[in-house]
Amino acid sequence: MDLWNWLEYGAWGLSAAFGLHMAVDWLKTDSTYSEDVLTSSREGELEAMAEERKGH
Amino acid sequence: MADVDITSQTMDGMGPHGTKVGLLRVLGPAHVWALGVGIVLVGEYMGWNFAVGKGGAYAALIACWFAGILYSCVAMIDSEVTSTVASAGGQYTQAKHIVGPLMAFNVGLYLVFAYTMLEAANAITAGYLFSVVASMTGHADALDQRPFIILVIMFLAWLNYRGVLATLTFNLVITSIAFLAILVLFLSTSGVIGTGIMEHAALFEGHELPYGWIGVLAAMHFGLWYYLGIEGTTQAAEEVRSPARALPFGTLAGIMTLLIAATLTWYVCSGVLPWEFLGDGVNGSVAPLFDTARLSGSNALIWLLGFGTLFATLASANGCINDASRAWFAMGRDKYLPGWFGAVHPKYRTPYRAIIFLVPIALIFALGAPLDQVITFSILSGLLGYTFMPLNIILFRRRWPLETIKRGYEHPFHPVPAITLLTLCGVTFFAVFLGYGTQLVAMIGFYIVVSLWFHFWRYRFVNRGAQFTMPWPKPRGY
Q1: In terms of Cα–Cα distance, which of B81, B103, B97 is closest to B468?
Q2: Rounded mean pLDDT, B89-105
Q3: Domain B29-461 has CATH 1.20.1740.10
Q4: pLDDT single digits (tens) B226-259
Q5: CB pair distance less than 8 Å for A47 and B352
Q6: Which of A49, B335, B364, B387 has the fewest CB atoms within 10 Å of its CB?
Q7: Residue B5: pLDDT above 60?
Q8: B266-303 pLDDT tens trace
């Protein structure tokens, strides 16, 4: 076992850690917030606000 | 309506129009530059030299400059349209507003495939680089590249998941280092600082155009590698603080950077490496800038260009994850794809479901497909996207002339850039057909099949009422 063998194990471990962190956070987020909030993003918010300002 | 001002810097895009959680407007022009140049610069470190193999060193230079013209047109056209359609999705959103739903669906898929395939190719390359370093440092057995390939994809996906500002600041740092490494290599080997090692005249003698002008044409395919991906700057449109300023500034500064980097790369590599070695990117020079540094005999340059190669690879994969996820997210938001993908993380304000969904796809291609096929699929998808752009800008100018919508940037000499771009795309399609005709036909067949699926099935689910959001006047002629 040289350094590179250890680095291989380290890469496997870190990959699993990053994947696990994303998966756990994803499930936590989906169960905490409603779908209405999570998918409420609308295109053109900046333009709509510019229009609204212009109208005031 | 005619003087809608989208250049305001006082609004952040969040407000009382239905959006409770949206993407965060935190980016500046430097991040846009880092996104565009970051995706591309790996093409300077490796890949472009296949053009030398196709037609010799001069052919590679001609391809470099013609492709430079092609991408300058892309950058100018993109800057004008995106400074006006400042939303995630980039060219997909442009197509939706200017051409129509079927074009938008296709362009969205071009983007996702081009970036996801490029991400996979970068991860494969990073794994290879780790194996080279392992063998150089005395590792006896062949290194298992898989954990490093997976780590690159997982780490960068995690970074993208956690927030766009950190992601693109990271890109800014590593892309700047990779670009500076090319400048330092040029200054150190060309004779500007110290003794030069350039041998252009000796290396070129008798090999000016070894395959004639058909070789120049064939080299165009790989000439794209110098710049492939600069159009990705448009995907940051919904996350920049000032779209009308940052997008044109970042994109045009990006193409200028790449024109300089591409020409310097050709100059230093072709002046040191024999064209037969340089042009063989598989058994010869895999990473020509690094090989040039090795021949310089300077350990400092070897280390600098070694890190430059790795950083350019990581920056490209990072930018690709950013761009593919924005395009996928935008298509989900409009219900071109299931609306589930249109979610934004309430804390990190990123399109987290799109980011996660594309991870296994990138992993499958990175671990299961050969590098040349993955890259070819990416280039062909990109090329189809470039062919759409001239049509897009001609329709945009015709339907919404300059006096009807205020642009953040107006590109000069219209329609010359559009016609030039269309012509160069035609030439490049022919060049690709010469080398990868089967893949080209197969891929066009694939897009025809998915277009039929979209037309006859998916379009019924599209959120037609909410997809045209720009406060534009009615198009001329309607």
Answers
A1: B97
A2: 93
A3: yes
A4: 998 999 999 999 999 999 899 999 999 999 999 9
A5: no
A6: B364
A7: no
A8: 999 999 999 999 999 888 999 999 999 999 999 999 99
Chain A residues touching chain B at CB-CB below 8 Å: 2-4, 8-9, 11-12, 14-15, 18-19, 21-23, 25-26, 29, 33, 35-51, 53-54
**Which residues of chain B neighbour A20 with C-beta distances below 8 Å?**
none
B293 touches B273 (CB < 8 A) = no
Instruction: Name the minimum distance, in Å, from the CA of A28 to any CA of chain B.
Output: 11
Interface contact A46-B20, CB threshold 8 A: no
Kindly list the domain boundaries of chain B, sorted by start residue: 29-461
